[in-house]
Write a structure and sequence with these properties.
323 residues; 10 strands; Rossmann fold; homodimer; six-stranded mixed β-sheet; 47% helix; four-stranded parallel β-sheet
Chain lengths: 323, 323
């Protein structure tokens, strides 16, 4: 796949997805020791970039296939992205979610009209459940990242970053991307390769779930010891995708790894200085920008906030760090 | 003053102020029983619309006058707006703030390079302190709302609302504006009169500080019993402005009044469904859109979130209402 698929996805998303703002604050610049530009995808429809991939995939289906319905497995953000797109197209959506997914994500997915099927993240494989339901009901499976049209949809975020960085005169910078299976990372990397080759993507992951960082270093896909229980639920995936890894390994520089404490502090600083709500998995890139400056190059860094679907309880933990 | 001053201010703000997004969420639409479009000025530089007025006023000064410095009195948001604009122009800024202003507002104003002078809101009149300091030091006073170039700057928010509503096909709606002294309300009303006459401004205030609602009803400027101690610090002013009230009384429909509990619930819902941080005074309009639907006309309502500069403690009180 290449930039033409992303451009085609951008055409289909035009008027449906939001062009999210590139935010900044002098206080964050001071903290980071360089200019920090924040791509606020938490302000996207459904509260995360996943709406882009969901809309891209649904809009690429032929109408008859789409009308039979779609299925997704997701810890919550992909679920909402697919459910919202399906509702707009009048298509049924079945979503397979882990039973420990944050309650607001489950509730929001149901509120978007989707049927939610819960499973035990520690004992069952969501891929198996998804495949079975899809074949039983004639649904089309929309995978969360290992799906070309999903990667193309997430890549539209990269087209916007390229344009917004150019508007600010930024030609060279590290672009930090919150990384789970690698759909957003691969999509942005492809877009920047074509549109802003001086911008270099660096995936960011939480400690203990740094499969992409280790895989990039090793040159082969490596898994995590577990995908359950971490703070950053949105980006806990078993290993880099079969479709995404060849893209990220070709285009991305080394990955960065942040601690849960750094994630919570980044959430608090986004609250205080950007006035946006970041969820833990959506705050890893900002955490790297603020607290791992020694690993970055240049006088400007771009960080994605990939989502904002967080429980009040977890957000309160982050707020408690301010003071 | 009229639309030409607002258009001129928009020219001067171009490339400096953000065009803030008009957000929405199907969950809020469901709650309100109509479509809710939210103008997120909390995402403006310095976390509130006040940057518009500050920049407008500073940029309208002749360079020699500006270089001598400016003075503002403010509970915090105007302070930051003026301080940020002054720093960009390389001009000194002195800000007179009440000693009970939220700590982040005081800290952020100092971080923007301004000199902060604190006063006792219950015992001293900020106007007197401001006038004295201005004459002693040769500073130009930038009033928070009763100043033509400040109203013109706030009016640029109304130009954006007119354009963004048109993009969404909205021709008729109530536009709810968080109202203190009336600078934002008057500015938006003037912009909409010229650009979107089907959009009608309604000021929104907190209980106990509803001077504008009562003044509009009476046809003369009436004051509040107190301006100290309320939750909605950003919009607690003694009475409608001498310059703003003739504009709001000519152009606005009746005012709305919301309770502190409604304000906190609106903040929580903006967190959950829009992923933005609203401060209490910035959430009154959304509170009216969500909880006072019986007082509104039409199938769409526009609500401003005028600012997001809130302490973690107050925000945690709002979060605690989710559950």
């Amino acid at each position: 796949m290449d930039i033409t698929m992303i451009e085609a996805a951008a055409e289909r998303l035009n008027g449906h997805a939001r062009r999210t703002p590139l935010l900044s604050s002098p206080r964050l610049d001071d903290l980071a020791g360089r200019r920090v530009l924040v791509k606020a995808e938490c302000l996207q429809h459904t509260g995360s970039f996943k709406f882009r991939g969901g809309w891209s995939a649904l809009s690429a289906l032929d109408p008859q296939t789409r009308a039979r319905g779609v299925l997704a497995y997701s810890s919550g953000n992909h679920a909402q992205g697919v459910a919202a797109a399906a509702r707009a197209f009048g298509a049924p959506a079945v979503i397979v979610m882990p039973s420990d997914a944050p309650k607001p994500k489950i509730e929001n997915t149901r509120a978007l009209g989707a049927e939610v099927v819960l499973y035990d993240r520690g004992r069952e494989a969501r891929e198996e459940i998804g495949d079975r339901l899809a074949s039983e009901r004639g649904l089309t499976l929309i995978k969360p990242y290992d799906e070309l049209q999903v990667i193309a949809g997430q890549g539209t975020c990269g087209l916007e970053i390229a344009a917004q960085a150019a508007e600010k005169g930024v030609e060279r910078a590290d672009v930090l991307v919150c990384c789970g299976g690698g759909g957003l990372t691969a999509g942005i990397a492809l877009a920047l390769e074509a549109r802003a080759p001086g911008l270099r993507v660096r995936p960011v992951e939480p400690e203990g779930y740094d499969d992409t960082a280790r895989s990039l270093a090793a040159g082969v896909r490596l898994g995590n010891a577990t995908e359950a229980g971490g703070l950053c639920d949105a980006i806990l995936t078993p290993m880099p995708g079969a479709l995404t890894f060849p893209i990220t390994s070709r285009l991305c520089a080394s990955g960065l790894v942040v601690s849960d404490d750094e994630v919570l502090r980044a959430m608090a600083l986004a609250f205080a200085h950007l006035k946006v709500v970041a969820e833990p998995g959506g705050a890893v890139a900002l955490a790297a920008a603020l607290f791992h400056g020694e690993a970055l190059a240049g006088d400007t860094v771009v960080a994605t906030i990939s989502g904002g679907n967080v429980t009040p309880e977890v957000f309160a933990r982050a707020l408690a760090l301010l003071g």
